[in-house]
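User: Hello, can you help with two protein structures?

Assistant: Certainly.
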Amino acid sequence: MLGRTYETQDCSAARALEIVGERWSLVIIRHALFRGITRFGDFQRSLGIARNILAARLDWFVEVGLMDRRPDPAGSSYHEYVLTEKGRELQPVIVALTHWGDRWAAPGDPPVILRHTRCGGAVHQQTVCHDCGQPVAIDEVEAQPTAHRAPTP
């Protein structure tokens, strides 16, 4: 089994993968974001995931602050797993990964189209410069260490 950590990497992407990089993780988050699923049984039925795997992922999401575990508001003995702000902020990651998958992993007609709820337009991710507001091409991005860190080879 693969380890969960990237101790040798001084990299925010590697740290993020320590949290959401396991199989099923982003798919569970996707269902919570775009399908509004919050209950264990609904996740299981919708995804066909083994109960032990789902339980471990949901417990992990609660532990790292991606979800809150709350009593069912209807008063049943069930619980809801509700995305926190930290969990909801994975939305652009899932949108970008979905578009990449539509193009490179499963070309053809995409299984879903992500739409803006207000106008119905298709949603797309775009990298934009914080300072000038212009779209940034892939070859116009470079990684620079922050001032307090030495560059890694």
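That covers the first. Now for the second protein you mentioned:
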Amino acid sequence: MNNFEISNCLDSMQIIVDSNEQPSARALKRYESFCVPYRVQKIDYGDYTYNFKLPSGKWIYEPNTRLYPPVSIERKADLVELSQCFCQSRERFAREFERAKQNKAKMYLLVENASWENLINGKYATKYNPKAYFASITAWQARYGIQTIFCKQETSGKIIKEILYRELKERLEKGYYDSEVEKNGISIDVSCGS
């Protein structure tokens, strides 16, 4: 793709929210802070990914299909919710990251209302041992190649959007979707003639 096509793809970006995300006032506030359109659809792993229009005008991910995206963000409301994933539903949580790993997807783990300091010092409302909790997260990072991001609740929507935008931009510039362009439409030549 040329620079003009890449720019148009980026301008068309929307965020896909996994259909398992619970609708709430808090969620709607997060979605509004994306400052790009969003839609709800089933994602095989993670809670958020991107979508965009190819130069042909076709969306890279069509509605009503299950997605196996190259990048996804798993969001947790706080350290309490994340600890439940490591303690009560660890196998299910691991299967989600295994599916991403099998698809060679890049995963981010975004935890709202959290910090490394609160995690290490046990400043959360569960009985999960701080050393065990810290070990679980760092082992998850090593095992699945994920990046963990702690943030405030009010900034999570902006962080989600920026991560997905930058990931899409990198993939477009590196030609990750060029085969889709060739399959779905003719590239527009906007270079100056001699």
